[in-house]
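Anyone else keep sequences and structure tokens together like this?

Example one:
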Amino acid sequence: MDQLNLKRAVLEKAIELQLAVQGSRSKINSTVTACSTYQGIDESCQFDVVNLNDYDVILGTPWMYQHQVCIGLNPARIIVGSDNTVPIAVGNNTKYLLGAVAPSIEDSIVNAREELMAYAEPLCRKVEETELPPF
């Protein structure tokens, strides 16, 4: 990434990285947008930036889902079903795929809650100013 002079976008809140190794702890602190070319795919993608030894890039489950990738082991083969990115349909079978998105959804909920509280604040103030009868 540094060799390609790509500009990193630093995340406001780091995202935990789920690895296959139990006990491994790593975080995604930034992203970068780069052109991705593989077989018939030629697109601009956003990549999470992680410090992993001996790997140039790891194409994750969401990318494989969006390009309908089928992997064969014997014989070894990779079949790309779609050169164009297919949107991820939110549902029970895509919960795992959206795991990294959860913090941004959670942040949206927190932001919406704060916005609603600010909107309701004048009403709440009026209720507090009203003298309530003792119980």
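And example two:
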Amino acid sequence: MSRQFVTRVDQDVGPTQRAPVRSVRGDSVELRDDIVAVEEPLEIRIARCGETGPGTPVSVTMRTPGHDPELAMGFLHGEGLIRSKGDVACVRERGPDGNVVYVEFAAGVAFTAASLQRNFYATSSCGVCGKASLQAIDVMLHSGPVDSTLRVSAELLTSLAASAHAAQPLFRDTGGLHAATLFDAGGQLIASFEDVGRHNALDKLIGSMLLNDALPLSRCVLHLSGRASFELLQKAAVAGIPVVAAIGAPSSLAIEVAERTGILLVGFLRGDSFNIYAHGERLR
């Protein structure tokens, strides 16, 4: 990822900060500092090639600062506005704290106002809450099929949690972050990203892979630190990820996306046990 392509702003705000707390243990009260996850707004703006001005705002999301260009690229990829790094001329962080990411499309790549007609405010807990209508969600349900030739063993799936947890230092400090962790077909860790928003963590992960020209992720396994929601499965499908394993439960809509797109979906992955919700025939 070249510095010419991605321009970053040195941020004073980090992913964590200290907060004074009163810690109650039975009858005792202790005054001390706690480490908490930072939650700050990020605005994503897009522009046509050569366009001057502030660009067109497409999203405001509450996120943990850090890897914001990756988050923007992953978000735009999941929304179908870009398909590869070649669709983008440059990515720039703007604002005094880098709280605006400006994405300029490459020559020949265009967008229409109709494609942006939705309420793009997304909270840190649920990126799909900003959709303007149920029709937009129905369109997203019809993501194309992934390459479903990858088969994995139960032993590989149950080995992921320890490696994923080791790659989450901010969660160990705060207990308040979600993570999306990517493994190769042999169970080797490729990358892991943390954020207060589970969809932001996955956007950062997919955006990082996109910037490194690694999409589609057809020989990879995605590990989620919490539940498997519709939007996470939709983003995984667009990125070509054929196996998704979550510590928590999937939703009914997430299962539907997995069934339609060919994703092997596993939930309640804890210790040596898990539930298979879609395409269990690919477990060997």
